[in-house]
What does this fold into?
Amino acid sequence: MDQTRAREIAKDAAEQADKTANEAAQRAGEQVRPALDQGKAVVQDVANRASEAGRQAMDRAGEFIEGVAPQAKEVASNLYDQGARSGQYVRQYVVQEPFAAMLIAGVIGYTLGYLIHGAKN
It folds into this structure.
């Protein structure tokens, strides 16, 4: 009989410990849940702010590109015009001074050949 009674006492103690542990876990969960919810809200807020900052950066970059595009177009147009004028000047010079133009071209060719040959050695 002592053995049966000891088993019942152990069983009751185990049930009571299980009940106490479950209640403690439930209370801990109830106490932790607000902190988790608050942490979740903070993370969501940070993500929203980062997303907004990214959108603002993209908008500013777009505005910058739109502002620079006309200037770049103008610079490219000016460079093209200068190149066309230079080409026209060179053609005119070659027609007027063919011997001098050939001499200049030869000097430029010799110099480039010398530099290329010198760079290999």
In short: The chain has a mean pLDDT of 82. Residues 2-120 form one domain. The radius of gyration is 43 Å.
